[in-house]
Structures are given as structure tokens and as C-alpha cells.
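Example record

The entry below shows one chain as it appears in the dataset: sequence first, then C-alpha cells.
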Amino acid sequence: MPAGSASAHAGLEGSDPKPSSWLASSPTEVVLHFDESVGVVFARLKILDQDGKEVFEARPTRDTNDHTTVRANIDKLGDGTWVVVWRVTSADSHPVQGSFAFSVGTSLSDVTSILTGDEGHKHGLNNLFNIIRFVMFAGVMALIGGVGLVMFAAKKPPSIRTRMSLWGAWTFAIVASIEALFAYGPHASGVKVYNFTDLSLLGDTMSTTYGQATLLRISLLLGFSLLLMKMEFCNKRVWRLSAIVTSVFVAATLSAVGHPSGQSPVALSFSFDVLHILAVSLWIGALFLITIDRKFWLRSTQSMLWFSRVAGYSVAVIAVTGVVQSMLLMGGPHNLIVLEYGQKLIVKVGLVLVLVAIGALSRATLRKSGPAKLHQSIVVESLIALIVVAITALLVAIPPRVQISNAPVQFSLKQSGLIADITITPARIGASEIHLNMGSLEGSFAQMTSVTARMSLPSKNIPNGPIELQRTGPNHYTAVVNFAFTGTWHIEFLVKPDPSRTVLFTTDVKVGE
């Protein structure tokens, strides 16, 4: 019975009952142990029967002194195989979902299709949230970078188009934030279709870090509108100080609900992420404004020289903070190729390098021929930058590390009229459980006379060692083994269905880290 994988950032380290375990009687509760603190405001736990029908649903609670442990009381279950489907929120505010199965009594059913067919975490709201996040990022960056450009690079009052562009960026940022505030509850709860007139989950959203950070961002953006109304004072110290402080706090609200909020050390990761967002805004956000109002900005050589110089400093800050953040989040460069997060990050870095190269050519052109020759290159840079922002919006929802998996492997072996169902949970280095269930292909169900087992690792010349099996039910045996190395382990089961004969079952198990 394979376990469904988690879809986001917190990983399920263990549970009670354990995945693929056999219980003599029904458990009274389900306990989930995660590798980081999780939220339960929108948490759900469901029990499905062997046909995939829901028989029980509960709202789990989190232990007071241990925010990595979640539990839910359940109704009494009869004999059979049961599937637990759980959904919680990880430390960085992203929903996490997974499933596993266990059996009560002696009966066993194949629930693989139920476990592998659960695609609740890939519902339409996930795509909607990616779009909202993209619009929000683009709006915030264009607003912060555009205001910075106006404050320090404009040599005369900004044009009407520049003013309208800043208001447009502000509108994108605040509308996307409001939409996120309303959509987060259904998104975290796993609702497949959401009616935006339904406010039933808004109160719960406001009790979460995501809701509070988003509400703060909306308030800050409303304050930002006052600054946009008084654009004629953009060269005054009070106006500039207010704009800078507000920009820093707006960037901080994005970092508070991203990967840094769940990464230790939080203070360092959070600070670097805020710096990263501000540097990107001063480069890419300002680039967006210049592209929209090229007629105004490309008139002034001094303005473009200021932007070119700040963009160069920003690239340096982005490089340092980006590398540090990636190492903190991914735990080193070894996951760059194997993880979806790393693969998308490589594409993003590649596009950024293209941007830097085009920017270097633009700087040379600026110094040689003036800003009038930059009309086409500015547009190309902005289009590439927009793709970079889109990839960033996707990266926020992708786990940056290999998640601990407790997924078991299962084998069904047939030999001499017998069938052996073997489950190993999990197939990785360290302690694992082996479950062996014997049956007859001829329909009879006689108790086996004896069952013994042994295992070896030929690649490291580790000879056969005994596996201590314990009988836990009719023809059901369990054992706890320790896989000391990765590789393909060879496991043998010697079964005596009666005193006169012995049947040998063999299988190879690939054990990972």
C-alpha cells in the first residue's frame, strides 16, 4: 500500500497508525508527525474505505507544546483497509496534503488507485493562486522600483504616463493582495471551485500568518496611495523617507509568507529575502516603468546613468542574497538538478544572466550613443524580466528540498501455490518495518508452520543476516530492520506451509537516503 506524497513544503515524518501497518483493533485517533511546525486552521483529515468512499472527516488539532504534531480522534473502524487523507498548512503558509493506508484485522484490499489518484492538491485554485502571486509580485516590484526611480533619477516632475503607470502598479498590487486574502482559505482547505462572494473562510484566514501579513500589505499600499497623490513632493525628505520605509515593510510582508518564514535561521533568511526583493524591485521594477514611459525617461542621459549604476549595484546584491538564500533553502547545490525547484531556479538564473548581458550592452550603448538608442533593448529586457517574475511566482509554491518520505514499497510474490504480500516502510536508510502476509492461491487459509527471513547487500559484500519476524496475526508477520547503506538489498523469506516442504521467496529492495 504505497503512501501518497506530500504536495508542498512540510514533510510527514511518521504517523500513528503507521503507513501499511496491521492493527488487531481499530485505533481511536490518528497522529501525524511533521518535520516542521504546521498550521491547522484549515486542516482536514478524512478516512476513506477500500472503495474510496469517505466514512469519516475531522478537523485535527495541534499539540500545545509541539507544533509539529497533529492529531484527530476518529470513529471505530471495522476490519479492512482504510486510507487516511490529510491536509495541513506548512510553516511558510502553503497547503500540504498526503495520504497513507493501514489495515484492521486480517483482511487486505488493494487501495493503490485511491492513494495515487488523489490529486486534490492540484485543483484549479492552485493555478489561480500562482496567477495572483505573479500579478502581486509584478505590481509590488514595479511600484517600489518606479517610486525609487522617480525619487532619485527624475530631473523634472514625472510625466502623466509615469504617474498613471505607478497607479497601475499600485492597483495590480492591492487588487492581487485582496484577491489572495479571499482565496487563501479555500486554497488552503482544498476547495476545487471557489465563489468569491463566499466569505465563510475569511475569518479563519485572518487568524493565520498569511492573512495578517496580507492585511498589513493592503494597509501599507493604502498608505502608499497617499504618497502617489502627493507626487509633486517626491523630492522632499519626508516624502522620500515615508516611501522608503513603506517599501521595506511591503517587501517584508512578502517574505513573511514565503520560504524564509520556514527556514532556520529565520532572521537571517528573512532579512536576506527582504534585501533580495528590494534589489530586484530597484532593477526590474524600475525597468518596467522606463519601458512603459520610454518617451519621458530616455530623454535624460543623467536619469539613465543613475538607473544603470543602481541596476549594477542591485545585481550584486541579488547575486549575494540569491546564492545565500538558495543554499539555506536547498541545503546545498546537490539538489539543483534532481528537484523541480532547482530546475526552475536554473532556468531563472539563466534568464537573469541574459538580462545582465543585455544590460551590459545597453550600458555601453548609453555611454557611447546616449539613451535614444535603447528603445528596443529596454523592451526586450522587460519581456525577459516579466518571465523571471513569473518563474519566481511558481518557485514560491515548490518545495526547495527533498521531502522526507515514509512511502513504503510493496511486492506480491507467488510460489508453489502460495502468495506472499511484502511491504517495507520506508525503503530508506535507517529503521524500517517489514510486513509479510501469507496466503494461498488455492483459496485455503491454513496457518504456516514456520516463517523465517534474512537479508544481504551484495554490492558491499554484506552476507545474509537474520531478520527477526514476529507473528502479529493469522499468517501475518512483522519485523523491524535497520538498513545501514543505500543500495539494492536482497531479502529472502523461507516459509514452511507444512512440516514436509519449504518454499523460498526472494526479492530485491532498492534503499535510498
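Notes for this example: The mean pLDDT is 84. Residues 374 and 473 are 78 Å apart (CA to CA).
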